[in-house]
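REQUEST ID: PR-0412
SUBMITTED BY: lab tech R.K.
PRIORITY: routine
TASK: structure prediction, single protein chain
INPUT:
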Amino acid sequence: MPPAPSSPPSLWQAIVDFDGTISREDTTDRVLERFAAPGWEEIEAEWHAGLIGSRACMARQVDLLRVSPDALDTFAATLEIDPGFPDFARLCRRHAIPLTIVSDGLDRTIRTVMARAGLGPIPVVANELRWRGGDRWRLLSPHAATGGACASGTCKCRVAAQLARPLNLLVGDGRSDFCIAGEADLVFAKASLVAHCVQAGIPHHPIADFADASAHLEAVLAGATLPAASRQREDKING
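STATUS: complete
OUTPUT:
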């Protein structure tokens, strides 16, 4: 049985993807569709084909953005989140489980969407969308892997290792979550992350939305069985 995360010190932290997980659609794609000059889709095709990593892909795509900060923020504020996410965030807060949004998307877009949701401060770790003046932008990736093995703009394994808690709950949906899914202690998976977990033999809970995620987390908090590797890690931490 996992330790009750409400009893100090809690061992758990929640690492939650944003695009397609918290948000109902990929917000970066929506921004590019609305504001990028022609050519961004060809760059996207290179990424899908495995010719470039997401960091290189997004840096080139962001160079094509033509939008003022006010227009970008106004558009981002119209993008919707999963209506079940607020309850999931409150569930984590109630049990003292730190929740961090860890995304290979754009920090400015994420913060704008989350501010509209009105959930209070939730840490965001993502690529930095830096305004260059006028309608031009560039991408910075301060959370990229340092060794070159990970081609993502945000290396979620690196971020998880820097967070405070030893046991990780991952909620994700896609390629940026593949690596960390193999290291997380509990995985709630959507979309292509489900297929990856099945193919790689990674224990996971398939979810359709955050209503499912909350139900699974409630079960864990009530004493549901964890995967064997996670129980062993937990036992080692507890001595």
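NOTES: DSSP finds eleven helices and seven strands in the chain.
REVIEWED BY: pending
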